[in-house]
């Protein structure tokens, strides 16, 4: 990939790359007494396969989401171990790449795992599946150097991939044989010929409409299951039908010589395929795609303006039997959210000399709420942004599409908790006779962004005094715990009944154990129940604005179960025992 395309992929696809590359969770928080944080340090780890065996000589990426200059690339040694030194005191993510393997996508509800200096982590790579076969021409002759790509349409759970790696073209050899390896488990369609993902391959089939296995258009393409370590044979009889052109111009605030590109993404069943677009850098504000088959597509243009990005709304087009020309794609500024992180100490003597969060290690992540997002949203949406607070606590999260967003935090301090996310709106009407300009609860209501809007006045307050709760859910005598068991906490105090930041959910392990950290002190109802497929599996989902009724139902069920726990400031409860009672919560 050339330098322009590398820049394009790294900037345009940052959301997908970040979400793909990491597993969920938070690195350990060991040192919780006051100490001097080193200015530079080391992050280490190990790369293993799905069976826990070391993977030697694997490329490892240790990246800072907030400072690209601190990103490093290294490789694992003979035992799968790696180490990166000389890193500044920031937070980092880790990922790895190995031939024939893939990094399992994490649950999209969860945030990435963040590491700080001195941490050590394990990166697990799964062995991928293989699709191989032969491409023959209309007369039975082998097609040589024809690009073949496998496109995932459903993941291992049978759902459309929320994000995925892009289909990579593999050329056929002199026998017409191709082999695509390292594929994640899922269901695929396979295409030969036509445009390549990054646009500029040169062979005799570039201007043809892609032929889908066995010898079909996209609408009638056969589906193939791929499993880890298994090989699936897919043969294609090439149709050799000419494709069409899609062309036009891009208008709006574009800086000369900026990294600017247009994305053409096919639409399947009304949803853009996020792992099958074609990209093109354009010159003189014009663009043209060739070898486009009949069907629906989303066109999106995007351009860098320093730290900011301008982008277009998706333009849905239909190609049917002829070229589509004369299109105009208008780019405009994206939205941003700015505010500050405030630290609030505790007078409780139990909280004395506890480590407070470092602003440089405090991550702020804003993400579009899925249930209220348009179903035909951008093929590569600006739906996610992350950053850390500056020395004075100020932060700005840039380049967001229009929609409703929720903000999450990640910080490394066991005895601190997220107390509030509030937004001061100048000129807002008084609430129930209260004072004007009263802050709104952005944690509960979310943050609604219009196209190009730049909102400010957001205050994220972290407070000292957090408690932790660990224990075991105990089944009745002679019984076992069911699968998919979740333990949920709901505020027991009436004055906190609608405080979304006091609702928590965590999985119950097979042995019945569970753990919660960074809990606000107070009294909680506890509820263990079997999670349904559509139940929130993370704190962020449970706290989303659209889950207000779910929270109310959980609180009512938990209160009826009459199991409560009282947590004091900076208290660590390590042996909480909760009898399991099967409880249904209506959704």
List descriptors.
587 residues; mainly beta; Immunoglobulin-like; 5 domains; disordered N terminus
Total discrete domains: 5
Poorly predicted regions are: 1-31, 375-380
Judging from the principal axes of the Cα atoms, what is the shape? globular
Question: Counting H and I runs of at least 4 residues, what is the number of helices?
Answer: 5
Mean pLDDT: 84
CATH class of the largest domain: Mainly Beta
**C-alpha Rg (nearest Å):** 26 Å
Summarize the structure.
This protein has 587 residues and is mainly β. 7% of the residues lie in helices and 43% in strands. 40% of the residues are buried.
Polypeptide structure, described:
The protein has 587 residues and is mainly beta. Helices cover 7% and strands 43% of the residues. It is built from 5 helices and 41 strands. Strands 17, 18, 19, 20, 21, 22, 23, 24 and 25 form a 9-stranded mixed β-sheet that branches. Strands 9, 10, 12, 13 and 14 form a 5-stranded antiparallel β-sheet that branches. Strands 29-26-34-31-32 form a 5-stranded mixed β-sheet. A hairpin with an 8-residue loop joins strand 2 and strand 3 (72-75). The relative contact order is 0.10.
Per-chain topology:
Blueprint lengths: L2 H10 L1 H8 L18 E10 L9 E5 L8 E4 L5 E8 L4 E5 L3 E2 L17 E8 L1 E8 L10 E9 L14 E2 L5 E7 L2 E7 L18 E2 L11 E3 L4 E3 L2 E2 L6 E8 L8 E9 L2 E2 L5 E4 L4 E7 L2 E11 L2 E5 L2 E5 L4 E10 L1 E10 L18 E6 L15 E5 L5 E7 L2 E8 L5 E8 L16 E2 H4 L1 E3 L4 E11 L2 E8 L10 E7 L12 E4 L5 E7 L2 E9 L8 H4 L5 H14 L2 E4 L4 E8 L8
Parallel strand pairs: 1-7, 8-15, 8-16, 17-25, 26-34, 35-41
Antiparallel strand pairs: 1-4, 2-3, 2-5, 6-7, 8-11, 9-10, 9-12, 12-13, 12-14, 17-21, 18-19, 18-20, 18-22, 22-23, 22-24, 23-25, 26-29, 27-28, 27-30, 30-33, 31-32, 31-34, 35-38, 36-37, 36-39, 39-40
């Amino acid at each position: 990939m050339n330098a322009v395309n590398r820049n394009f992929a790294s900037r345009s696809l940052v959301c997908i790359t970040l979400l793909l590359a990491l597993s969920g969770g938070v690195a350990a928080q060991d040192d919780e007494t006051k100490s001097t944080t080193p200015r530079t340090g080391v992050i280490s780890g190990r790369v293993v396969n799905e069976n826990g065996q070391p993977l030697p000589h694997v490329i490892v990426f240790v990246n800072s989401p907030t400072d690209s200059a601190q990103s490093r690339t290294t490789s694992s040694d003979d035992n799968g171990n790696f180490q990166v030194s000389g890193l500044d005191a920031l937070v980092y993510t880790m990922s790895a790449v190995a031939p024939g393997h893939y990094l399992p996508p994490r649950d999209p509800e969860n945030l990435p795992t963040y590491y700080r200096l001195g941490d050590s982590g394990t990166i697990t790579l799964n062995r991928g599946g293989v699709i191989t076969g032969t491409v023959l021409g209309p007369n039975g002759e082998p097609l040589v150097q024809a690009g073949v790509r496998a496109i995932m349409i459903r993941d291992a759970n049978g759902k459309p991939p929320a994000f995925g790696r892009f289909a990579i073209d593999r050329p056929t050899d002199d026998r017409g044989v191709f082999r695509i390896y390292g594929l994640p488990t899922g269901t695929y369609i396979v295409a030969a010929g036509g445009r390549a993902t990054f646009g500029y391959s040169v062979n005799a089939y570039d201007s043809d409409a892609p032929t889908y296995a066995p010898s079909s258009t996209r609408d009638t393409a056969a589906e193939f299951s791929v499993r880890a370590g298994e090989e699936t044979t897919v043969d294609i009889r090439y149709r050799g039908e000419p494709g069409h052109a899609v062309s036009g111009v891009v208008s709006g605030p574009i800086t000369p010589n900026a990294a600017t590109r247009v994305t053409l993404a096919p639409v399947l069943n009304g949803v853009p395929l996020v792992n099958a677009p074609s990209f093109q850098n354009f010159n003189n504000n014009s663009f043209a795609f060739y070898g486009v088959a009949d069907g629906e597509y989303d066109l999106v243009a995007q351009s860098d303006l320093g730290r900011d990005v301008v982008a277009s709304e998706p333009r849905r087009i239909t190609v049917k039997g002829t070229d589509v020309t004369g299109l105009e794609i208008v780019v405009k500024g994206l939205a941003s959210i700015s505010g500050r992180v405030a630290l609030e100490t505790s007078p409780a003597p139990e909280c004395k000399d506890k480590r407070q969060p470092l602003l440089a290690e405090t991550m702020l992540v804003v993400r579009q709420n899925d249930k209220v997002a348009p179903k035909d949203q951008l093929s590569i949406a600006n739906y996610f942004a992350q950053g850390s607070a500056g020395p004075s606590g100020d932060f700005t999260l840039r380049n967001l599409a229009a929609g409703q967003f929720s903000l999450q935090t990640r910080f490394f301090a066991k005895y601190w908790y997220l107390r509030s996310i509030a937004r001061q709106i100048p000129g807002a009407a008084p609430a129930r006779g209260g004072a004007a300009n009263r802050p709104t609860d952005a944690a509960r209501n979310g943050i609604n962004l219009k196209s190009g809007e730049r909102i400010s006045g957001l205050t994220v307050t972290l407070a000292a005094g957090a408690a932790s709760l660990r224990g075991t859910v105990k089944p009745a005598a002679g019984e076992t715990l069911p699968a998919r068991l979740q333990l949920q906490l709901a505020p027991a105090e009436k004055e906190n009944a609608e405080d979304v930041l006091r609702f928590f959910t965590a999985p119950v392990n097979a042995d019945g154990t569970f753990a919660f950290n960074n809990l606000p002190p107070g009294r909680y109802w506890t509820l263990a129940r079997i999670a349904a497929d559509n139940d929130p599996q993370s704190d962020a989902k449970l706290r989303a604005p659209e889950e207000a009724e779910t929270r109310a139902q959980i609180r009512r069920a938990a209160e009826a179960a009459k199991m409560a726990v009282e947590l004091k400031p900076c208290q660590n409860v390590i042996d909480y025992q909760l009898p399991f009672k099967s409880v249904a919560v209506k959704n």
